[in-house]
Recover the amino acids of this structure.
């Protein structure tokens, strides 16, 4: 009896995604350039925060299933604004950089954005954190 290797489902799913347009080091340079920095350059703390943001982008694209899910939750959630305020970056700018660089798919962002009721009715699912 011959042993048939199982297909690499994870590799196949990732191969369907377009390759990122820029490297992680280029992302770091872009975010540091836009971050509020002293005339002497970004502080070590600013560099650390930008490194966390870039790592989340890389994890959202190349991590394991759990890492991708956690990174997307971070990039699309309210936690991102808490991190970006330390370097005076807008969360929407960081998300846009991640999308344009090819680390975050635009469909993911649209799917994660909550729909606001148009008739003035209050949606109770947002109160319970269900989105």
């Amino acid at each position: 009896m011959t042993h048939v290797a199982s297909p690499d489902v994870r590799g196949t799913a990732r191969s369907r995604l377009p390759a990122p347009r820029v490297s992680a080091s280029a992302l770091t340079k872009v975010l540091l350039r836009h971050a509020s920095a002293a005339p002497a350059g970004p502080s070590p703390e600013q560099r650390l925060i930008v490194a966390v943001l870039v790592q989340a982008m890389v994890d959202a694209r190349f991590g394991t299933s759990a890492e991708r899910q956690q990174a997307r939750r971070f990039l699309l959630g309210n936690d991102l604004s808490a991190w970006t305020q330390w370097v005076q970056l807008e969360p929407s700018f960081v998300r846009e950089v991640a999308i344009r660089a090819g680390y975050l798919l635009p469909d993911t962002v649209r799917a994660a954005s909550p729909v606001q009721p148009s008739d003035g009715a209050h949606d109770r699912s947002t109160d319970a954190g269900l989105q």
